Amino acid sequence: MNKLLALFILFFANSAFSQTHPDPVTLEPGAKAIDFKLKGVDDKMYSLSSFKDAKIVVFIFSAPHCPTVQAYEDRIIKIQNDYKKQGVQVVMINPNSPGAVCLEELGYTDLGDSFEDMKIRARGKGYNFPFLFDGQTGETSIKYGPVATPHAFVFDKERILRYVGRIDDSEKIGTETKHDLRNAIDAVLAGKEVEVKQTKVFGCSVKWEWKKELRQKLDAGWAKKEAPLENISVAGIKELMKNNSKKLRVINVWATWCGPCVAEFSELVDTYRMYMGRDFEMFTISTDKLDKKAKVKEFLQSKHAALNNNFIFESDNKYDLIENLDPKWSGQIPYTVIVEPGGKIVWRKSGGLNFFEFRKAIVENPLIGRYF
C-alpha cells in the first residue's frame, strides 16, 4: 500500500471516530493537579503523593510506539538528569489503550503500547524516571487531557499547573531552537512567572479506549483481502534474492507441516502490516510439495497473508532452494532473511522468530528508521 494512501485512510478514519467520541479537554494553566493511582514499569503503585518531596513535577504523556516520542526520549532523559538535583521529577504516563493502536500505525517502532512493551522500552532506553500505565481505563489521562504524545504538564510545589504543551519546537533531533519545557522549569525554579504558559503540541494522537472501533474496522477489512500464491523456480529465487527494488525485503521460508512455521505466521503477517507503508516488502516461500498447493493457499487465506507475494517452490529438490536463497542456510525451517537492495543479506534467522528482535532489526535498518 502506498504510504500516503495508508496515512490518508488512517487520518480520515480517526477523524470520523473523533466526531463520535469527542477528545477530552486539556487541563489549563492554573488548575490543580489531579490525584491518580497507576502502576509503574517497576511494578510499584504510584499516586500524586509519591512525589510529595519534589519541587516540580513534570508529567509527560507518552507512548512507546510513537515516532515523535522516540525522537524525544533522549531529550526527556537529559531533562531529568539536568534538573534532578534541583528537585524536579519527571513522570511519564502512557495514556494509550493497547488494543486501540492499529498495526498500520506501528511503522516506526518495534513495540506496541502494552504494559510489557513499556517495560522493554524503559529498560532498553534506560529511563531514569517512573513510567506509568493508564491504558487499561485511561481515567487519569482523560482528566488531564493530553492531545498528543508527547505532551508535557509542569506543576509547581503547590501542584498548580504552570505550563502545558510541547517539549520544544522541533521533533527532529538537533534542530530545536525554542526549549519551552526547560524555559518553564527554569522560571518556576526561579520563582518567576512562566512567559509562555501553553503551546500547541505536535505528535501522535492519543489512542483512547473508544478508538478500538477503528482497529476492529481495519482488521475486518484486512481479513477480506486475497492472499496471493504463485509457483517459483530456481531462477525466480535468484531474481528474488537480487532485490532490485529500493526497499528492504523480508523472505520467510516455511511449510504447512512445520509446527513453528504455522505458530508464528500470524505475527509474520502483523509485521508486514506494521511496515507496509514504509520502504518494505515481504515474501514467503512454501516448501510444501507442489501437489499441496491448494492446501497452502487455504492456509495463507486463513492467515490473511495478503503480502507482496507468497510462493511455493516448484522443485522437489529443496537443496536447490537452500543454495540459491542463502548458502549460509543449513536447511532448517522456518528460515527468515532480511535483504537490502542489491541483494545483501543483513539479517538471518533459523528456527522460530523472536518478533521483538526481528522487528528491531527491521526498524533500525537505515532504510526504515524510527523517526519521520
Explain what you see.
It contains 11 helices and 15 strands. The protein is of the alpha/beta class and 372 residues long. A 7-stranded mixed β-sheet has the order 2-1-5-4-3-7-8, covered by helices on one side. Strands 10-13-12-11-14-15 form a 6-stranded mixed β-sheet, sandwiched between helices. Strands 6-9 form a two-stranded antiparallel ribbon. Helix 7 runs parallel beside helix 10. The longest helix is centred in the N-terminal third of the chain and has 18 residues.
Short descriptors:
single chain, 372 residues, alpha/beta, Glutaredoxin, seven-stranded mixed β-sheet, six-stranded mixed β-sheet, elongated, disordered N terminus
Give a nutshell description of this structure.
The chain is an alpha/beta fold. The chain is built from 11 helices and 15 strands.
Q: Indicate the overall shape.
A: elongated
Biggest beta sheet attributes: 7 strands, mixed
The CATH homologous superfamily name of the largest domain equals: Glutaredoxin
Integer average pLDDT: 94
In total, the number of strands is 15
- In order across it, which strands form the biggest sheet? 2-1-5-4-3-7-8
- CATH fold field value of the largest domain: Glutaredoxin
Order of H and E elements: HEEEHEHEHEEEHEHEHEHEHEHEEH
Which range does the strand content fall in?
15-25%
